[in-house]
Amino acid sequence: MIRSSILMIAIHRLQLPILCVLATAVAWPQAPANPPKMVPRPEGAEIHMPKGFVIEEFATGFTRPRFMALGPGGEVLLSDFTPNGSVWVLSGKQQKKLLENLDRPYGIAFSKEFLYVAETTSLKRYPYDAKTMTAGAGQEIVSMNGMGAGHVTRTVLFNRKGDKLYLAVGSSANVVTGDPEMRAAISRYNPDGSGHEIVASGLRNPVGLRAYPGTDQIWATVEERDGLGDDLVPDYFTHIRQGGFYGWPYSYLGSNLDPRITEEHKDLVARAIVPDVILQPHTAVLDFLFYTGKQFPAEYRNGAFLANHGSSGRAQRLGYSITFVPFKNGKPAGPARDFATGWMLAPDKAEVWGRPVGLLEMPDGSLLLSDDGGKKVWRISYRAN
């Protein structure tokens, strides 16, 4: 893996001319289909984290637990991402289905008296009663009819005032032209679904979506394209510029052309943005959060935890972990480093026993992690002694 390591270092330092030469001089092999095989937790298997951190089961009984949100009363809401999906509410020892018969619900968010739920083909809002933890009838505010194929996660986020919502939608295929403008893009709306505008485009699959603490600056994690070999194209983590174009499908990491696209769009490629943090290729970061709590050591404050769902099209497996990106003065202060590992038995083995998905910071500063491979939610806490 020496060649891979050199390539990744060059990318991280943004030495893009080197990458261009490699991309044009080498006939990149197709990455093999290499999906994980989910197995029960092997005897003796452990999650490895820095000293002082503890991980334990928080809740079980789900099918594909994905995104989480904190309710007005401190309750946890969780989307269960299946074709006949649901939204759960967890409070103390109580665990119940709040909504059922949903089409692959993923992103969830609260604003004022409403709970917003992003299904694959529809964004709906529901009147929500925090005292009884019940929801009224849903109202569709954004239709995504006809967008049920390709990337099917939908992430929703509100700004601090609650007067604008953001909706992230991935592309219809790995590499394709002619998608509707909502796809491979981040959109912005009024809370009732009116006033649609495109914030940023050229984002193959922007799944993680958060604002930096104390600001409305949006950051996103993006799953990049497949089919150019094990080491291309790296996924990435970046701040989102209004009107920004991030390359897909014509180029990647700025102006590096995708050899499979014959249409020329020199104007778009010329302004394609180089992302802030280059991640490992094909690791599929499905969520991240900026840590603002006080339970963890100070070095983690305002830094980003990333949930790596794990590769499924790479010969040597990557991901199945949580990584951490330190921040200083609102900007990344170093590359991603391992924080929690162990769900993957080995890079050359198919067997894994967990797949990190969603992250949620609790009022006490602990973190919840959803795991759709293990069908559970974990709690991560820190104990100084």
TrEMBL record:
Pfam families in alphabetical order: TrAA12
Entry keyword set: Signal
Record-given protein name: Cytochrome c, class I
Keyword Signal tagged: yes
Entry superkingdom: Bacteria
Database matches in InterPro entries: 6-blade_b-propeller_TolB-like, Beta-prop_PDH, Quinoprot_gluc/sorb_DH_b-prop
Domain Pyrroloquinoline quinone-dependent pyranose dehydrogenase beta-propeller: 48-226, 272-380
Organism: Solibacter usitatus (strain Ellin6076)
Gene3D superfamilies: TolB, C-terminal domain
Record bears the keyword Oxidoreductase: no
Signal peptide interval: 1-33
